[in-house]
Specification:
Blueprint (H helix, E strand, L loop, with lengths): L2 H10 L9 H4 L10 H10 L1 E2 L2 E2 L4 E15 L2 E7 L4 E6 L1 H7 L8 E11 L4 E11 H8 L2 E6 L5 H10 L6 E7 L4 E5 L10 H11 L4 E4 L2
Length: 216
Amino acid sequence: MSQLLKNEFTSLGFYFSGHPFDAYREDCKHLTKSNLATLKKMMDSQKNGNGYNDKESMIQVAGLITNLKRRGNNYTFKIDDGSAILEGIIFGERRENFRDLLSNNSLLFLKGRLRFDSFADLWQFVVEDAVSIDSIINKKAKTLLIKCDSKFDPERLQKILQVHTPGSCKIQLNYETDINSTKLKLGEEWTVSPTKELRADLTAELGSHNFQFISH
């Protein structure tokens, strides 16, 4: 998370200029079927004249962990992807498996069961597996796609990329102006490691919407 977003949340209690998940949003589209806002609409659509449908569904979500609290042997939390917030729980038997991953402001990919708790009269997301988003991208990313425009400064980008070479991830520049567009694949000497440090450097220089790690 950038220092700007941290300062905004500390001062205002919310993010103003963006969301910590923005830098990962495009990368996570192949991991989850929908964002949390779409998922919550689906949950609302399960209402009927007899109450909620009690069937469990397996879901996959990604986002920022907040409001992490220990409740006896369990953890409760909220996951926020900038479109909506979903509450979840990790039961004691699985808590130890994810203890090193769980912290407020961590960005995680979660798998689990979505079920309706008729006693509490609410939906409950029960986590069965958790992985850091950075570790998934580090393992699967094959290409770093960078969008460039007329203000593109190749020397500044070169300095950033040099710090993170060599690696396993190839680089493609998509240069677009009002007149034309060009795609340029850089040579093998320009391969980078798709780490969160590289992501932070690129976000600071280009903005979170101007690059993407591709896994296929």
